[in-house]
Amino acid sequence: MIADCTFASFPVDSDCLSPFAEGHRRLSPAVERLSKNLCLFAEVEMSVAPTPGEIFKRASREGRRRIGQSLLELTATGFIAGFTTVFGIAAMGVAHSAFLPAGRELAQLAGAAAFALGVVLLVVQRAELFSENFFDPLASVFDDGHAGLAGGVARLWALTFVFNALGGAILAWLITVEGVLPHGARESLARIAEDIAGRGHLAAFVSAVIGGALVASLSYALLGADSVFARIVMAWIVGFLLASGPFDHVVVTALHLVVGVLAGATVDTMRIAEIVGVDILGNLVGGVGLVTLSHVAQAKG
């Protein structure tokens, strides 16, 4: 097995392999595992990250796939993303309440770390949030050079948003049933919702610009990742940044508000509608204007 792999550019100390070489017959499985791991590690070390142009081509292919989804596939994918987001929100409430006695700042960081696990679950499941669909579909529009896909992009965005909200609202109702979450978690979720609703329009808009840019950047970064582990790490980092700001993603923020209201927060429906409108605009500016168009220019230039 060792002879099958050449470590020409990977330094291996021959002394560390000699015990295995001497007992090759007796330790054959161990030798095979060792040599295989060394080969894989050498492969990773020698791999080259894709260029912006290559990432753009990947995005274009993925965008065409997303635009071409059947109605059932598209709605199911959006629905799954909605309730998966609420898993992250629930984890955030539990962690926030558990760490609150140690201080509000620590509780916020713990909640953000817990929420990020929901984003990891989203990525691993290949579910899709509304603004996660900014970069790839638009890359396919720019790559193909015609506006014929614009209708498909509008369909993708509209249905994803609606079913993100529907899936999330159903699970929001379930997790806020009295006794489902640990003591204090409902109160933490209500407090988080009231904090979100208490911000002014300008703060909400700027927060949404940053949130849209973060999620669109995640879409771009995932296309450059060639391993599941790298995708998990990137998803967790972006999820943590999104929640630690907190920066607004329209679906995540809307579901935070819905969960909070069901948990006892005093936020009226009109205020939720205002925040959703501001967040959609901000996410478009950040996700499309700031990130997507910049990467299109980078790839085309």
From TrEMBL:
Classification via InterPro entries: Aquaporin-like, For/NO2_transpt
- Select a single GO molecular function from the record's annotations and give it: formate transmembrane transporter activity
Q: Where in the cell is it found?
A: Membrane
Question: What keywords would UniProt list here?
Answer: Membrane, Transmembrane, Transmembrane helix
Transmembrane ranges, per UniProt, are: 71-94, 106-124, 156-176, 196-216
Principal location listed in the UniProt entry: membrane
Highest taxon in the source lineage: Bacteria
The record's GO CC annotations read: plasma membrane
Q: Give the membrane topology, semicolon-separated if more than one.
A: Multi-pass membrane protein
Q: Which PANTHER family match?
A: FORMATE TRANSPORTER-RELATED, INNER MEMBRANE PROTEIN YFDC
The protein depicted here goes by the name Formate/nitrite transporter family protein
* Species the sequence originates in: Cognatilysobacter bugurensis
